Amino acid sequence: MATTTVSEPQVSQGVDRDNEPETRAAFDLIFSDHFSRNEPGVFAPLRDLLLTHGDFYMRLADLKSYLEADGRLIDLDTDQDAWARKAILNVASSGKVSSDRTIAQYAADSWRVEPCPAP
């Protein structure tokens, strides 16, 4: 009988928070109880999880690129024409989603109804 071994997911060795000012600033705020003045230390388990035991789900690996994307979003939000263009292109490019097919199949097979034309 063959056995299958499941390998452990890779654990991030952490982010060099000393060389990434955004990450360092976020940690400094969170772990200084800035957001939890009425509950000092409430984020200690988060600190331990991310910095002591390894970032198992690699939450911090993309923090810098996330902040960069967020900055682009904020810039785009100030340009209404560019925002509208991207929104329209996004909707136009979305295509048919799986729920469209599922609903159409359910309507045809279960309810035995046909789509009606849009006016």
List keywords for this structure.
disordered N terminus, single chain, mainly alpha, 2 domains, 5 helices, 119 residues
Question: Could you give a short description of this structure?
Answer:
The chain has 119 residues and is mostly helical.
Tell me about this structure.
With 119 residues, the protein is mainly alpha-helical. It folds into two domains: 10-70, no CATH class; 79-113, no CATH class. It contains five helices and no strands. It is elongated and about 60 Å long. The termini are far apart. The model is unreliable at 1-12 (pLDDT under 50).
Number of domains: 2
Q: Determine the strand fraction and express it as a percent band.
A: under 5%
Low-pLDDT runs of 5+ residues are 1-12
- N- to C-terminal distance: 63 Å
Give the ordered list of helices and strands. HHHHH
How does the helix and strand content classify structurally?
A: mainly alpha
Please tally the helical runs, counting DSSP H or I stretches of 4 or more residues. 5
The total count of strands amounts to 0
Biggest sheet record:
none
Shape call: elongated
What's the pLDDT, averaged over the residues? 81
Rg for CA atoms: 24 Å
Kindly state the percentage of residues in helix.
40-55%
